[in-house]
Amino acid sequence: MSNAPLKLAVIIGSVREGRFGPVVAAWFAEQARRHGSFEVDVIDLAEARIPLELPAVPPALDPDPQRPEGMTDLTRRLSAADAFVIVTPDYNRSIPASLKAVIDWHFTQWDAKAIGFVGYSGASGGLLAIEHLRQIFNELNAHTVRNYVSFPRYYLLFDDEGRLREPEEPAAAATGMLDQLHWWATALAAARSLEAVG
Ligand SMILES: Cc1cc2nc3c(=O)[nH]c(=O)nc-3n(C[C@H](O)[C@H](O)[C@H](O)COP(=O)(O)O)c2cc1C
C-alpha cells in the first residue's frame, strides 16, 4: 500500500443562491486539516454542471457513461477520493436535489469508500437528510460511519463572520467522526486492492 495520505473530499451539497453550506463546509474543512490524517479537497457542487436528465442506461450496467463536459472535474475529484464528508441541510426532510443528482450520476466513485456527514438546518440539524444518505450509500456499497456532526438552528450557532460561538463541542464531534472515517478509509483502501465480491 502507498504511504501517501488518504484523500478526503468534503462535498457542499446545497447549490441555492444565498446558501449557508459553504460556511459549514469551511468550518469542517479546517477541522479536517487540523486532524492531519487526510489531504482535504472541498468540492462545491455549484461549480459543476449536474443535469437532472440521467444517462439512458442504469449505472450498474454502464458505470462510466458519457458525462457532460462541465462534470469532468467533479468526476475526477470524486474518483480520486478515498473518503467523503457530505455537508448537507434538510430540504423537506430529505437531501437537496443537487446532491441526489450528483450521487446518481456516479457509481464506482462511491464504491467501497468511507462516508461521514455534517448536517445543519432549522429544526432537525440535517439528521433527516443524513438518514436518507445512509440508505442511498448503502445501495452504492459505500460505508457510512456512525459519528456525525449536526447543527440544529445553525443560525444561532454561527456568528456573522461564520465562526462558531461555542466551538468546543462541535470540534470534538468532528474529531470523533474523522477518527472513525480515517480508520474505515484505511481499511477500505486496503480492501479495494483485493478482488471484489458480487
Ligand atoms: C427547499 C427547502 C426545504 C427545507 N426544508 C427543511 C426541513 O425539512 N427541515 C428543516 O429543518 N429546515 C428546512 N429548510 C431550511 C434549511 O435547512 C435552511 O434554509 C438551510 O439554510 C438550507 O441550507 P442552504 O442554506 O445551504 O441551502 C428548508 C429549506 C429549503 C430551501
Describe the structure.
The chain has 198 residues and is α/β, with parallel strands linked by helices. Helices cover 37% and strands 18% of the residues. Strands 1, 2, 3, 4, 5 and 6 form a 6-stranded parallel beta sheet that branches. It is globular. The two termini are 24 Å apart. The mean pLDDT is 96. The structure holds flavin mononucleotide. Residues 14, 16, 19-21, 89-93, 121-124 line the site of flavin mononucleotide.
**Could you give the count of β-strands?**
6
Rg measurement, Å: 16 Å
Q: Which hetero compounds are present in the coordinates?
A: flavin mononucleotide
Shape call: globular
- How many strands, which pairing sense, and closed or not: the largest β-sheet? 6 strands, parallel
Figure out the total of helices: 6
Calculate the terminal CA-CA distance, rounded to whole Å. Answer: 24 Å
GO molecular function: oxidoreductase activity
Protein name: NADPH-dependent FMN reductase
Keywords: Oxidoreductase
Enzyme class: oxidoreductase
